[in-house]
């Protein structure tokens, strides 16, 4: 059918048109900014031209031990990630198993999720000192609630029929748990871990910036205190980029774990 | 009584889908006289909801013309009131505020709006429920609220798309009675889209039977049953004959539709 | 949030439920451990002050006029931040929710830029808005813009389509559609967006205050840290958390008010 081919091509074009327009607008925005700054309409001492920021990005990557900083921050995140997985899943399992505990404490955990934990960073500094442990512990406390809550959700949400299948095979309590409930709950648990990791990264980088210690967050603080304007902008962009890639990676992993959705 | 109030001429609607162009409706023409009750009946997939949207002015991409009292329509016409198939009451407004909605849009002063709304709320038999919210009412009651809301705008033509589809059979029959009563009381010109033969024969002066996609007019049947009608008529012999006749027409179209759907699903089954 | 299954209140003889007993037990136990640590002398001086010291500091805090001045500054900054960031978020959300093309073009940027640490923009905010309240408000606004915009856009797409057709069938004009159909239909996503936005604006504004400020609650906290006045720091944090959790609950309750009618 010769009518179908041009229709398909038109459909494919219509598909990428919005994304292309969006990208084009973003590029155009930076081009306009470049022009405005170079012409002096916007002071280059307040907003450096994008071209300078890109240059600075190269310089920052070369000179500021980006790799070491990056691994420091990621290391903190992963430590937090391991801690929240261990304690979060254990906590969720315990709360699911002991309903009384769940009824008593679940709203507290939810409240903790809504509470601005990171604002207590001065307190953590007093307790742990101005070092990586403060950063990790803040990340841990902030990221723990979603893991616990999602673990409970995943376990409670096991379809009744699957549990009945287990019972029909006379599985013991722990077999039932490890062979049926836990695997069924895994996708939801991973969602919780993903949410936790995102909270963790945001809080970790934030605290690194605030207490001027650590990896990427500290880099921005350093450059800002040196009044290296293009460098500061470049570092901010770099950190945002790392965040975005981190987020996308977690999404991909989650999608891989949940092929049915 | 002689010049028709609604004239649809050679309506045709074509859609672009992933598998190529699809003709939903092809060469549908009919007219409705003032005070008449016309039902459009057809199997699923015959395009009757598409016809509803075209006449209601919500679907502008079509060939053919629709004239209301001689005027070509261009978007929703002020003389046409629509009642939709789905739940359409505003959950955040109580019954009287729901019914007064079209009056609010035209800027009618509050006291007058409320009086007018209460009149139509009584007409559909919901007096006493003015201050209730849709969430507190049953499905049938909510559809009555939607009906009252549309009636409150006093349309010359009432256009309804399977308004009772989601209700159980008994409620449907009783509501059908109510609608008939209202229609007879107001001499309301009504165009009802339905797939329910009993409902169509019970209520209509004429029935337009549509074919399966592409939807065309298969036959127009005059329903010569005495008025005023109630649901008692459902048992009568003449009624049964009309139903059988229309089912005959529909059966052919409905089975074509079924075969088509099955072929489609087989085609899609291999990912 | 997990579904809290069956609430079995097993009354004891005194009529108090087991749940309440457990909660009271946990709280009392935690406080006992705390007091124990405070008196043990294991930890450096005042890292864990005695409960009495904290209570005294709380009273001193809440009875000082100076505290309310700082509280006023912070609340004012958060309110303006929420108004600006939240307001822009609502407008952008309405636009993206209402237009598929624009949504597919731009929403992805909001989605991926949302979960990033905004505090790192603070040096830029100081450059642009100075060291006073302006930079704090700017940071708060930047932080809460994203979640509100995404929330409103998603809310618009979830509106029951038939309600829009009802409006159009009655020939409502654009303003009538927005005021009488879109906004009421979206009241839940909007309230949840505001709730989320409030929490995030609060964090953004306060963190900025702790970094560089001489006013506001954030300043008081970091000030207590730098003078190692631990009881005062705990007191500030306790009041702050109570206010934050309370405000969140209040907005949530307000949003749920009309669920009775639903």
Write a compact overview of the structure shown.
Chain B has 271 residues and is of the alpha/beta class.
Q: Tags for this entry?
A:
heterotrimer, B: 271 residues, alpha/beta, Rossmann fold, 2 domains, six-stranded mixed sheet, four-stranded antiparallel sheet, 8 helices, 10 strands, globular, C: 262 residues, mainly alpha, MetI-like fold, 11 helices, disordered N terminus
How would you explain this protein's 3D organization?
The complex is a heterotrimer of chains A (261), B (271) and C (262). Chain A is an all-alpha fold. In chain A, 83% of the residues lie in helices and 0% in strands. Chain A is flat. Chain B contains 8 helices and 10 strands. Chain B has helices at 48-55, 95-99, 101-105, 110-123, 139-152, 169-186, 197-203, 237-268, and strands spanning 6-17, 20-32, 37-41, 63-68, 71-72, 80-83, 157-161, 189-194, 206-210, 217-222. Chain B is globular, with a radius of gyration of 19 Å. Chain B starts with 5 loop residues before the first strand and ends with a helix. The mean pLDDT of chain B is 88. The relative contact order of chain C is 0.12. Chain C starts with 17 loop residues before the first helix and ends in a 6-residue tail after the last helix.
């Amino acid at each position: 059918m010769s009518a179908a081919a041009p229709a398909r091509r038109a459909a494919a074009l219509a598909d990428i048109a919005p994304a292309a327009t969006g990208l084009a607008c973003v590029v155009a925005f930076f081009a306009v900014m470049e022009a405005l700054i170079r012409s002096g309409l916007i002071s280059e001492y307040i907003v450096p031209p994008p071209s300078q920021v890109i240059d600075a990005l190269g310089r920052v990557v070369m000179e500021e031990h980006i790799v070491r900083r990056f691994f420091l921050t990621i290391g903190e995140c992963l430590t937090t990630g391991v801690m929240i997985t261990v304690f979060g899943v254990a906590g969720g399992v315990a709360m699911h198993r002991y309903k009384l505990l769940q009824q008593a404490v679940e709203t507290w955990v939810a409240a903790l999720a809504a509470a601005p934990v990171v604002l207590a960073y001065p307190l953590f500094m007093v307790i742990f000192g101005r070092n990586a442990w403060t950063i990790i512990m803040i990340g841990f406390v902030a990221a723990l609630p979603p893991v616990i809550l999602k673990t409970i959700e995943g376990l409670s949400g096991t379809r009744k029929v699957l549990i009945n299948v287990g019972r029909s095979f006379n599985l013991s309590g722990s077999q039932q748990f490890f062979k049926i409930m836990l695997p069924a709950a895994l996708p939801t648990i991973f969602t919780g871990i993903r949410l936790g990791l995102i909270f963790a990264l945001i809080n970790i980088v934030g605290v690194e910036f605030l207490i001027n210690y650590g990896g990427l967050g500290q880099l921005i603080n350093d450059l800002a205190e040196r009044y290296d304007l293009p460098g500061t902008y470049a570092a901010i962009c770099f950190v945002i980029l790392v965040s975005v890639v981190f987020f996308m990676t977690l999404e991909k992993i989650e999608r891989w774990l949940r092929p049915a959705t | 009584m002689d010049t028709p109030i609604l004239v649809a001429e050679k309506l045709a609607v074509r859609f672009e889908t992933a598998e190529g162009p699809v003709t939903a409706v092809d060469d549908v023409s009919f007219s409705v006289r003032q005070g008449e009750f016309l039902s459009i009946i057809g199997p699923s997939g015959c395009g009757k909801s598409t016809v509803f949207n075209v006449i209601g002015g919500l679907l502008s991409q079509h060939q053919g013309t629709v004239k209301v009292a001689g005027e070509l329509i261009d978007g929703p016409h002020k003389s046409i009131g629509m009642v939709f198939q789905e739940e359409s009451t505003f959950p955040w407004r109580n019954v009287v505020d729901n019914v007064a909605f079209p009056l609010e849009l035209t800027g009618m002063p509050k006291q007058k709006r409320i009086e007018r709304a209460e009149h139509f709320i009584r007409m559909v038999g919901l007096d006493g429920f003015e201050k209730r919210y849709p969430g507190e009412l049953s499905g049938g009651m909510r559809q009555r609220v939607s009906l009252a809301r549309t009636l409150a705008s006093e349309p010359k033509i009432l256009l309804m798309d399977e308004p009772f589809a989601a209700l159980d059979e008994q409620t449907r029959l009783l509501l059908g009675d109510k609608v008939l009563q209202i229609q007879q009381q107001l001499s309301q010109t009504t165009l009802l889209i339905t797939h329910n033969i009993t409902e169509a024969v019970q209520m209509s002066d004429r029935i337009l039977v549509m074919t399966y996609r592409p939807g065309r007019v298969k036959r127009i049947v005059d329903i010569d049953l005495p008025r005023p009608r109630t649901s008692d008529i459902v048992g009568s012999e003449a009624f049964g004959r009309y139903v059988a006749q229309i089912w005959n027409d529909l059966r052919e179209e409905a089975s074509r539709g079924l075969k088509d759907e099955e072929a489609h699903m087989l085609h899609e089954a291999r990912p | 949030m997990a579904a809290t299954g069956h609430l079995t209140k097993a009354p004891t003889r005194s009529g108090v439920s087991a749940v309440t007993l457990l909660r009271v037990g946990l709280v009392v136990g935690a406080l006992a451990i705390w007091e124990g640590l405070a008196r043990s002398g294991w930890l450096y001086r005042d890292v864990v002050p005695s409960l009495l010291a904290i209570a005294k500091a709380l009273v001193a805090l809440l009875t000082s006029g100076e505290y309310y001045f700082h509280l006023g500054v912070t609340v004012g900054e958060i309110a303006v931040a929420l108004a600006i960031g939240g307001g822009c978020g609502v407008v952008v959300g309405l636009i993206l929710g209402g237009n598929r093309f624009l949504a597919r073009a731009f929403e992805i940027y909001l989605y991926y830029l949302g979960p990033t640490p905004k505090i790192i923009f603070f040096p830029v905010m100081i450059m642009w808005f100075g060291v006073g309240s302006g930079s704090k408000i700017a940071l708060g606004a930047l932080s809460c813009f994203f979640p509100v915009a995404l929330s409103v856009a998603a809310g618009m797409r979830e509106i029951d389509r038939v309600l829009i057709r009802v409006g159009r069938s009655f020939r409502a004009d654009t303003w009538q559609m927005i005021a009488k159909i879109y906004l009421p239909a979206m009241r839940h996503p909007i309230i949840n967006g505001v709730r989320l936005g409030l929490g995030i604006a609060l964090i953004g504004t306060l963190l900025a205050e702790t970094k560089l400020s001489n006013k506001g609650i954030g300043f008081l906290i970091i000030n207590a840290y730098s003078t190692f006045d631990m009881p005062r720091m705990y007191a500030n944090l306790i009041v702050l958390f109570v206010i934050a959790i309370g405000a969140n609950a209040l907005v949530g309750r307000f949003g749920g008010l009309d669920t009775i009618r639903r």
